[in-house]
UniProtKB/TrEMBL annotation:
<keyword id="KW-0813">Transport</keyword>
<dbReference type="GO" id="GO:0005768">
    <property type="term" value="C:endosome"/>
</dbReference>
<comment type="similarity">
    <text>Belongs to the VPS35L family.</text>
</comment>
<keyword id="KW-0967">Endosome</keyword>
<keyword id="KW-0653">Protein transport</keyword>
<dbReference type="InterPro" id="IPR029705">
    <property type="entry name" value="VPS35L"/>
</dbReference>
<protein>
    <recommendedName>
        <fullName>VPS35 endosomal protein-sorting factor-like</fullName>
    </recommendedName>
</protein>
<dbReference type="GO" id="GO:0015031">
    <property type="term" value="P:protein transport"/>
</dbReference>
<dbReference type="GO" id="GO:0032456">
    <property type="term" value="P:endocytic recycling"/>
</dbReference>
Amino acid sequence: MSIQNIWHSSWHLNIHLPAGKATTPGSAVSEKVRTRLEELDDLEEGSQKELLNLTQQDYTHRIEELNQSLKDAWASDQKVKALKIVIQVSFLTVCLPKQFKTRTRVLSVTFSSSFFPENFTPESVNDTAKETCLNWFFKIASIRELIPRFYVEAAILKCNKFLSKTGILECLPRLTSMIRGIGDPLVAVYARAYLCRVGMEVAPHLKESLNKNFFDFLLTFKQIHGDTVQNQLVVQCVEMPLYLTLYSPAIDWILQCISYRAAEVLLTETMERCKKLGNNALLLNSVMSAFRAEFIAARSMDFIGMIKECDESGFPKHLLFRSLGQNLALADPPEGDRLQILNEAWKVITKLKSPQDYINCAEIWVEYTCRHFTKREVNTVLADVIKHMTPDRAFEDAYPQLQSIIQKVITYFHDFSILFSLEKFLPFLDMFQKESVRVEVCKCIMEAFIKHQQEPTRDPVILNALLHVCKTMHDSVK
């Protein structure tokens, strides 16, 4: 018996009918279910055959068609047809992870039930409504394929409120375990992301299910390096770095769900589990993106140690340092660690060969440097940026990042005698060769001077630098 059939059988074993509504082979409910089984069997076979003939562009167009068809079917009271369409959407969900959000939104269009009043209880539902609700769960149970059955049941998870007070509490762990039957790790992680999304909507207080989804994912993450996945990547001519990027949106969503209002101890547990996996860079980056900046900043040196031990194949370390720097722009690390953190980060950044990789990372860490250090360190950083971005006029492709660096420097240095005494400040301005960009930068400098320079000045350093800035602005006037 296949995994799908095992889960299908176990689903039936866990169905509980309302009191007084037990069915027999000859009952009306049983007859309805039997009729629907034949219709849905035909649909599943057709849906799988249809996928074989669709190109990537066809998928997007097909989703749009199904979305409208679903709305029309539900509006015209064609409930079984609507279920058929949802099954087709579930099959498409497996194929294009990058459009996962759009397709799961289609799943929720009809089967959402956000209209429950605050004081709603199962006792408020009459027997006819309960039987109708249960009949829908029977229809879902009749879907043979695991993935469509999972997505459709997850989409109507909130409807368990019609049957019992504990329905959702009982279903979430079962659906979490059901995902273990999905053999493809990429398909499985998106299923977990969808379940976490639904769980947050209908029962945000049930954190245990969210945590279980993530930790189950960690246990199976090693499948990525197994023969089955590796052979598929060879057949499809997909490189590992590109393949890994497909996991990021799903992992990010799961972690954002479990980190929402989470205690700091959860980050500690997550970090320990990541260490056991060999500090996978993809996971580490998602962890730093999901948890509160204060938590990350407090453990900056721990994260740096984990980053050092990461395998760079598939996910470069400079992206990890960029994520760490984004957190440190929002929260301060322990004072005694600040210089060591800067040194460790900059040792990696300054070795980057690609000007674009370099400037994307350097831009983030300039703010950290300005925030915690003196003009000496800032001047060193500016010199390094000039060194990397001047050859082959690489600065021409990085004006937005260079403008951002200037903005951050003048945000933290309001004393213009210090700012203009930076040896590399004016040479840095010289990299803005495009007139429109150079004028914008000069305007920012003058606006900051007008705002923060409260007293008249005769400082020759300030006057000489401002003369240079104003001349640039004047020369641009036609």
